[in-house]
Write a structure and sequence with these properties.
Elements lengths: L4 E5 L3 H13 L3 E5 L2 H7 L7 E5 L7 H9 L9 E6 L3 H9 L4 E5 L3 H14 L7 E4 L2 E4 L4 E4 L2 E3 L3 H12 L5 E2 H9 L8 H14 L8 E4 L3 E4 L1 H5 L1
Parallel strand pairs: 1-2, 1-3, 3-4, 4-5
Antiparallel strand pairs: 6-7, 7-8, 8-9, 10-12, 11-12
This protein binds calcium ion.
């Protein structure tokens, strides 16, 4: 799933389509699910930046879905926004209990929802302009490109997602299994050494700019983006 992406879980077709349209027009990339079960499947793939969950869903409810996502290390930190119907005030407290970050009460305007999404992304550390930068290395999550200084670097979509994850969490080491889950998703079978291949490719793309070492090997663990080496 590309950057700046939202997963919308809503069973009502009209609302789902209207929100998809509004979110896309606001620059978001949208995937949608009609049920919580379908959302769980989608979330086994590369993760979105935020999930919007309708409270009332057939089968597994929105609150159950939220609880499940919070209980899973892979999705525990994913920003969650709940859509609720009027008159569910006491239920709202329960939804915060389930780890919801914010909620919007129906009926709402798309503009209001988008403002809340942006605020929530900002609170969870998403840069306002969508650009994550460390030193001269800058990754534009909306434009989908990477620059060192003024020069644009060409990397493939998987390498981009890998670099994005590392740049979002500088100096944090990820092991190969974590990188596979987050960048490739759980629903594909990829060998761990695939991660090494992509790291080598990233280093090769960055090395003409003296940044080949910024994606560092952490012995016995895996890889990390070194803030210090990216700044150098
Ligand atoms: Ca519903």
């Amino acid at each position: 799933m590309p950057s700046n992406s939202v997963l919308l879980v809503e069973d009502e077709t009209d609302i789902r389509e209207m929100l998809t349209f509004s979110l896309q027009r606001a620059g978001f990339r949208v995937r949608s699910a009609e049920t919580a079960e379908q959302a769980v499947q989608i979330l086994d793939g590369p993760l979105p930046n935020l999930v919007i969950i309708d409270w009332m869903l057939p089968g597994m409810s929105g609150v159950e879905l939220a609880r499940r996502l919070r209980g899973d290390a892979l999705t525990a930190e994913l920003p969650l926004l709940m859509l609720t119907a009027r008159g569910e005030e006491s239920d709202k407290l329960r939804s915060f209990d389930a780890g919801i970050d914010d909620y919007v009460t129906k009926p709402f305007s798309p503009r209001e929802l988008i403002a809340r999404i942006k605020a929530l992304l900002r609170r969870s550390g998403e840069p306002d302009d969508g650009v994550i930068a460390h030193g001269r290395l800058a990754l534009d999550t909306r434009g989908g490109h990477v620059k060192v200084g003024e020069e644009r670097i060409h990397i493939g979509p998987t390498d981009f997602r890998l670099l994005e994850l590392l740049m979002r969490h500088p100096d944090r080491a990820f092991d190969r299994a974590q990188l596979l889950d987050r960048v490739w998703g759980r629903n594909v079978y990829v060998e761990e050494r695939t991660v090494d291949v992509h790291v080598l490719r990233l280093r090769k793309a960055l090395s003409p700019y003296g940044m080949g070492e910024a994606v560092e090997t952490v012995r016995g663990v895996g890889y990390r983006l070194s803030r210090q080496l990216a700044a150098g």
